[in-house]
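Throughout our pipeline, every protein is held as a single compact record rather than as scattered files. Such a record has a labelled line for the sequence and another for the backbone structure tokens. The remainder of this section carries one protein's record, kept here as part of the documentation:
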Amino acid sequence: MNQDYIQPDNWSIIEEGFDADRVKSSESLFSIGNGAMGQRANFEEKYTGATFQGSYIAGVYYPDKTRVGWWKNGYPEYFAKVLNAPNWIGINVLVNKEQLDLFTCKEVRNFRRELNMKEGWLSRSFVAILSNNVEVEVNTKRFLSLDLDEVGAINFNITPINGDAEITFQPYLDAGITNEDTNWDDKFWDTLKVSSEGERAFIEAKTMKTGFHTCAFMESSVFINNERQDQKPEVDKQANTIAFSYTVSVLANKTASIHKFGGYTVDRNHNKNQLVFAANKALETATKLGFHALLANQKEAWSKIWEMSDITIDGDVKAQQGIRFNIFQLNQTYLGKDSTLNIGPKGFTGEKYGGSTYWDTEAYCIPFYMATKDQKVARSLLKYRYNHLDKAIENAGKLGFKNGAALYPMVTMNGEECHNEWEITFEEIHRNGAIAFAIYNYYRYTGDFSYIPEMGLEVLIGIARFWQQRATFSTEKNQYVILGVTGPNEYENNINNNFYTNYLAKWCIDYAIENIEKVKEGYREDYLRITGKTKITHEELDHWKKVADNMYFPYSEKHQVYLQQDGFLDKELITVADLPKADRPINQKWSWDRILRSPYIKQADTLQGLYFFEDQFSTEELKRHFDFYEPFTVHESSLSPCVHSIQAAKLDQMDQAYTFYLRTSRLDLDDYNKEVDEGLHITSMAGTWMSIVEGFGGMRIKNDMLNFEPRIPKEWEAYSFKVNFRDQILKVNVSQSETTFELEGDTALNIVVNSKPVTVSPDNLVKV
């Protein structure tokens, strides 16, 4: 834990007291989004202190040219950047012509910021004494509408306390923005037109290179004590900005307010020549409803999301706050409405990691979306990869792979690889396996095999072809090896025979062969289409099988564990417990050379394989591997604690499971890795959900049935969650004394609890 200022609360993230040193951290933690756009929790009014301004539009990016010290053949030409979009939230506020700026105020007291996760809004309140000695009270509230996902709304209230005052509101749009993260300080946006119509303003702009056309828009109205003021604004129009100005006289202890609606229309959804028309239409709908009615709709929309996705925890407020924060941010980032979108590792909260899609989606996020939403959402995420299959084949071709071999990118926006670190881009090839595993995971969870003949089998064939060609036959070992890779543990580069990678490669080939046979037997028309397209032959399948059956896995007889890679035991095996705290995190304290030579593991690696393929290993094997590898794991990846929590719970090591759960659920809230100011770890948040449902709840799918082995930390009185399994919603409640199951639906559901069959009937509470 590196920070502890967020107030414990079941449903809200709360900050009390203004501290300029934590503004950037709070801008991340209090971020808001609606799946189509999002923004960091920047102040609406001017702020001259350290800040990270950020507003983002889903699917809009820039191909920032790769910057490396020494160019290697095969480097991607660009690293995709999530773009800081034109700013629509800004409202300069002047009191008797003095700028309201919390950084320069003489005094700020009673500062309170709240992100209400239950209802989906962000608020601030404070009392400030300005440089001109005017004392004011400010209350603001804003949200990004789930119903009108092109629109956000702000209600900004200011009350002079120690005398009458002249209040000036200057709402504005600003397209002259830059990215915090950029390689060459390129200009990312080209402003096309700045215009206004009455109390509405528009800035049409397009991205350089990618040519996304956008329109940022706003409409404002001013009130005194809730009575609208009929005042025509002054307009200040510049090359990249447009601002309105409203000035009103306000008596002491009376309130001046501005309601501002704003947002974006984008040519991903509209004709690029009709963006202002679409913006006007969005504004008409929003202003007709008004701020308060739109807020009421927001509360109702979030209520429906929480009805299915909420996890309750009794007796541990910090644990409860943590899981709801993770679920909230996942839903702010991706709602499954658009199959051309995916889940970025920072969501709408920052720019680090650039691209839209990593293997995090398939390995961690799909289980959350399968269980908490309609299965169509997970299918959309799989369809996203199918749509990029040709690009994956092209990516592999650039590296010399042939015959339709597919290498899915480490980072991508449009299917092209756009990550520019060689040891990640071309060595961390295990991401290919996560995509195949997601297809398997989707089928076993939903029972929907149709995805495989329609789309998935072509993906599996491309991936299997890659693994077969990537493996090398070792005459020394008389087995197939995979050389020069980076596993999930990125603190080892260019190593040989990473267990996780080799095991995935074998499994992917076997799974592809299995599904070719299934489609051949049951979907003849699809089989002929796919084999005709891929030109697959029996001779090729025989060679695949030979590679899979003879894959090498490094193993230590002494420790009775699979080795993370061939040379792991050559390292000086000093555990994390003996690592000085002053050296942590090592990625910020040590040279890369020292890290690579150390035994320290960034995240679950060999254990990631045992997590994916748990049913292929005994509990005793899992325990041996867990006890061997966890002491060397520094958990400096956001993806690490959740896997360890799940496996510790499986092993009934509940104190460890609980500790890892708190770390994954409060990773950002408590800033464990000292980097929350850069943005949140969105994709790992799905792992937090898994640590409860799969960890403590012990949920697995075996033999087409839900299985549970529920456990509960001693710190909790009870917890509950819901899962949507094959269109039947099952609620699970675990207390210290019993577990209960309730079913929403029309037909009974057979499940297995602690290895015993149980039937749950609709509207009938079953106690175990």
Remarks:
- The two ends are 37 Å apart (CA to CA).
- The first helix runs from residue 23 to 29.
